[in-house]
Structure prediction request, 296 residues.
Amino acid sequence: MSADFWAGYLSGAAGIIIGNPLDLVKVRLQAGERNPSAATIDTISRFSDKLKSLLRGSPAPILTYGVLNALLFVSYNRSLHWLNGDQALPEARTQLLNVWTAGALGGLATWIVSAPTELVKCRAQLDAERRSSWIVTREIWRERGLTGFYFGGGITSVRDAVGYGFYFWSYKAGTEYVTGLTGATEQSAANTLICGGIAGVITWASIFPLDAIKTRLQTQCGFLTATAAEPLMAADSIGGDNRRLKGSGTISREMYQEGGMRIFFRGLGVCSVRAFIVNAVQWAVYEWTIKALTTV
Prediction:
């Protein structure tokens, strides 16, 4: 395996372990929690009571997000090399455009992993009986088969393409700006952490409405039969007893009627804190691992 594969794998695994607690808060707010402050405080207090609660819904992402991140970085690096062609260093504007495009292509490449991972993670995090992601996975497989894991895959692919385009673009722009100011030939650890964190915040700000719609789409009732795993979202948030699955358009309209434009950004504050911390760590782990593997 290439160095960027292992660097991506390790950084992805580290990121999901660190970020899962705040991600749980984000998903609960997006799914329709009426009292965001209470949801945040309640979730954090549960984390302090039991380590198992802190990592609830994370086993599947921990195992798969490393693969996802490895696929992302490998696809991004290969796409960028292809877009640049024979030009070792294109002009600045073209270079950043190529970086965004390569990031979007990398995001699309991760869809085969990210769609089922997001579905299982979100449903496990909102499960009424706090069951593990493995149990949720088995239920989806039993009732929906392989195709069931790609429910909501369309909006997930758009989110990932747009988001990862901005992810790599903002990190590249940030690191070039900082090194241009300092005149340093190598990027310092502090700059990597700061630029990585800012890139994470910019990424999530650019796709948060899409992510909010995706969360409600994937956690709506009716996807599975009426079992203990089913009461994920409140009945008034998903249309009462109507068991027919809703599409992204219907959910978007219902969300707007429920809370206007603000509802699409509910949880963005928590997500921004999480994004800065997680992506600062992810980029640091990635850069340090690449350096270690390529200098051996």
Q: What stands out?
A: The CA atoms of residues 8 and 70 lie 4 Å apart. DSSP finds twelve helices and no strands in the chain.
